[in-house]
Amino acid sequence: MLDILRRIVQEVSSATDISDALKVVVARIREAMRTEVCSVYLYDPESQRYVLMATEGLKQEAVGRVSLSPSQGLVGLVGSREEPINVDNAPEHPKFYFLSETGEDPFLSFLGVPIIHHKRLMGVMVVQQRDSRQFDQSEEAFLVTMSAQLAGVIAHAEATGNILEIPPSAEKKKKRTRFAGAPGSPGVGLGQAFVISPAADLSGVVDKPADSIEEEIERFEEALEAARREIRILGKKLSSELNPEEMALFDVYLNMLDDQALGAEVRARIVDGNWAQGALRQVVMQYVGHFQMMEDVYLRERATDIIDLGTRILAHLQGHDAAPEYEFPQDTILVSEELTPAMLGEVPADKLRGLVSVKGSSNSHVAILARAMGIPTVMGVVDVPYAQLHGLELIVDGYRGHIYSSPTDELREQYQSIYDEEQALQEDLEGLRNMPAETTDGHRIPLWVNTGLITDAVRSLERGAEGVGLYRTEVPFMMKDRFPSEVEQQQIYRQQLETFAPNPVTMRTLDVGGDKALTYFPINEANPFLGWRGIRVTLDHPEIFLLQVRAMIKASDGLNNLRIMLPMITSVGEVDDALHLVYRAHAEVLEEGYEVDMPQVGVMIEVPAAVYQIRELGSRVDFLSVGSNDLTQYLLAVDRNNPRVADLYQAFHPAVLSALKMIADTAREIGCPASVCGELAGNPLGAVLLMAMGYDMLSMNATNLPKVKSVLRGVSHAWAEELLQEVMKLESAQVIASTLQLSLEQAGFARIIGPVRT
Ligand code: PEP
Ligand code: MG
Question: Which one, out of 257, 340, 343, 443, has a CA that is 20 to 30 A from the CA of 363?
């Protein structure tokens, strides 16, 4: 049974659309259960009816035409009861409803099971037989199992806008305009789609013997050099938008094109007798295959970079320019099957309103750059017929990961007003830049920023940040193809420290593992979030840790505004070991002749174990900083990146709030300053509570800082304390979130906090 099930699920998952998938399901189930009929009815929320979507055994003409209301027939009964119904003489059942269109009168046995996904009823699956007999327990169990598996597939198809054929007659009316992908970079963009395609197609290249090996090598060298030139030019075009650190990505590209890497391998294959195009395709495909097999999403994404480079070289081999001069519309939404950073460089920055990529995820380099540049982006819009979008009006919703083609006037107005509102709010908030975050009754709480890229730093200063509470050092590590050297790190850190001096900059030591991977340092584990992460990795590699800390300390020479923070601390032993290494690094730097202060060192509170050892941890270090993102994930046992359990990731869960309160209380008792640097601190609702709990500082992304400041300046500390007391008595995350929402709306902050957020 398990085998049949696995095969059906496999076949269904590879079907191209929902109606194909359902056809496979009904055919295979009928075969496996040896029944005469198998049908699937899906619930259409618009007509509020169960529509026959696929059948084997009933008349095919009935598909899409026949439907039942929830109060009609055994199908309706299965749906409303949300449990299986198994009867041996259906026509005798009081709920039996005769559907003449299906030609079903002679069928006596009926087994129907609901199709439910995440508590939502999607439809009903039915098997029928002419003779009167009761389907047995194992048959019922099989159908229930099948339906549970199918529910996920249907929900997925529905989410990507595939269920449009309900009923087929209405197909023309309901033009597919919304496509769902993943949020790549936040914001809303309105404009005209410009579809950009790679200049050549590598997969279409055939192998053939080289007429002259020397000539082929020469042709290849020229194409390689032309591609290098092109990457340099495209990189230069982006250089006003990006800083040297982000521009390093283009160096990674150039390194890949290096004579020693791709170049050498292609040359070897030409020497073996293949012509240049064929040799190039072979090498690129080999690299791509290698990357695509990797489990790590970030590494898998690197296949894109290789294809982009290969395609560029091929275009030159075929005698055309890989980056022709396009005429981009004034408000370009750039669309491609697979966007690359180089393509981004082709559009003048003042014309670019949004990005859409059919392939890729928020880990793609192009998404990382889009976030740095503040361009709304949607990635992985798999179902969009992207080539047909060219020239169409498009809306990109980078918050939700949706795009809309040819929007209605109403939708356009709606998005235009979100866009206008965002711009206006931003302008209003800019006025707060030099004002302190001080409540109406005089309580002052410093607001710092979280940074990774230097563009973040620039934006942060513009928004009035008083320091950096979390500099994620892994970001510059991710932009390279090897560990950055001590000197390279020193330069990068110096830039951060100088930008903010004399304000403090809190640098977190390398926090890789979990969902953050380095191409050149892969960590493959079954449970990465419970595995080799953060301080665990760097304590096992003191050479990496020492080098990084030395670079940080040297970078603070003459500035002395550095603070060092340790991620993923679970036990005091880890702090002792890390402190020992920090002292050693400091001593080594002094020995080299620097005269630099020992930086303050702090611990991140991200693991539940640390919550219960605040006293012990806090007495060892200069400050504590709560990483509420990880703390929430570990307290609630909910993977912060898993969409299936996203509803359960509740920032306002009473247990999370109790832990946060306990940390603040204990830290105050022992006189150790405590702050929060997770997303909660940047959520105006969260910030009010954290301030009331007694945190000494909040650190957040630069975008949210003015909003948080505006709210904190508009309330009194006494009011926030009362609100905290009230919500600490509540038992449910939802109730807490809506209480906070309502209270802040009533206090006049509806415009700033926007719609419900938990
Ligand atoms: C956190 O866990 O809250 C945090 C700030 O660190 P990161 O999001 O980088 O894991
Ligand atoms: Mg963390």
Answer: 257
The finding on whether 243 has its CB within 6 A of some atom of ligand 1 is no
Tell the residue nearest (CA) to atom 9 of ligand 1: 472
Nearest atom in ligand 1 to the alpha carbon of residue 472 is: 9
| CB-ligand 1 contact for 185 (6 Å cutoff) | no
630 in ligand 1 pocket by Cβ < 6 Å?
Answer: yes
Pairing of strands 697-700, 674-676: parallel
CATH class of the domain defined by 178-196+326-407: alpha beta
Distance (Å) from CA 295 to ligand 1 centroid: 22
CATH architecture of 202-317: Orthogonal Bundle (1.10)
Give tens-digit pLDDT for 697-713.
999 888 788 889 999 99
- Residue whose CA is closest, atom 6 of ligand 1? 627
Interatomic CA distance for residues 447 and 750, integer angstroms: 21
Q: Which residues are catalytic?
A: 365, 677
In terms of phi and psi (left: phi > 0; alpha: psi -120 to 50; beta: otherwise), the region of 73 is left
The reply to whether 178-196+326-407 and 202-317 are identical in fold is no
If phi > 0 it is left, if psi is from -120 to 50 it is alpha, else beta; for residue 29 that is alpha
Q: Which amino acid is at 356?
A: V
Task: Write down the pLDDT at residue 456.
Answer: 61
Ligand 1 contact via 698 beta carbon (within 6 Å): no
- Report the nearest atom of ligand 1 relative to the CA of 629: 3
Is the CB of 68 within 6 Å of ligand 1? no
Q: CA 612, CA 634: separation in Å to the nearest integer?
A: 14
Place 460 in a pLDDT band, splitting at 50, 70 and 90: confident
The pLDDT value given to residue 420: 85
Residue nearest to atom 10 of ligand 1 (CA): 630
Give pLDDT tens digits for 526-552. 998 999 999 999 999 999 999 999 999
Q: Which of 51-60, 234-243, 493-502, 576-585 has the lowest mean pLDDT?
A: 234-243
Pocket test for ligand 1, best of 468, 472, 508 (most atoms within 8 A of CB): 472
Domain coordinates in residue numbering, the chain: 2-159, 178-196+326-407, 202-317, 438-753
CB 660 within 8 A of CB 626: yes
Q: For ligand 1, is residue 198 a contact (CB within 6 Å)? A: no
Cα–Cα distance measured from residue 345 to residue 365, given in angstroms and rounded to the nearest whole number: 13
Q: pTM value?
A: 0.69
Would you identify the CATH topology of the domain 438-753?
Answer: TIM Barrel (3.20.20)
Q: Which residues are bridge partners to 190 per DSSP?
A: 395
